[in-house]
Amino acid sequence: MSGLKDVKPRKRGQILLETSTLPLADKKQAETVLRSQGRTMLDAPISGTRTERPAQAWIMYLSGPPGACRQVRPWVSHFTFYAARIGVTGSGTKLKLAANHHVAILNVACAEMVAFCRKMWAGPSRCLAAHGEQPLHWHRADAHRAGIQFKPSEGTPLHAVA
Questions:
Q1: What is the pLDDT of residue 99?
Q2: Is 43 helix (H, G, I), strand (E, B) or coil?
Q3: Cβ density class 39-73: b for 16+ within 10 Å, e for less
């Protein structure tokens, strides 16, 4: 982060989106340096797979000061499907890591289902035709389209409100 200290801001009040999954300690160090320069850093990892239409699939987990999250949301909406404020800085990365774990578990479950179908009565093509071509994955974008809203709550990053 030593190089970050040498970068002079063009003006105070800049908001920077840090979209990686760097270690939280590094993000907090960068946030401290940027704050000392009058800038705000939002921890804002993106969840979603590579797609030609990211605005239909990507979700950004914004975390940091509420006002800064509100300020960037209209801009972020041009390249994401949904941008939720998760909580304090670091909450976005924590939820992104949890989401990655969720996807891994669902991918394994899908593979097990295909293997089970193959053993019992049908090949993978028949099994996947019944469930779609992608692994069984309840994505937040799908939930949003279905009318389920996610709101921050005390103690847990998000909970569904039907």
A1: 86
A2: strand
A3: bbbbbbbbbbeeeeebeebbbbbbbbbeebbeebb
Supply the pLDDT for residue 110: 76
Query: Averaged over 66-73, what is the pLDDT?
Result: 95
We report the CATH number of the domain holding residue 116 as 3.40.50.720
Structure-derived torsion over alpha carbons of residues 66, 72, 77, 80, reported in degrees to the nearest 10: -80
Structural domain count of the chain: 1
Number of H helices, E strands in the chain: 6, 7
Ranked by mean pLDDT, the top range of 91-95, 141-145, 156-160 is 91-95
Domain that includes residue 72, residue range = 2-161
Does pLDDT of 117 surpass 60? yes
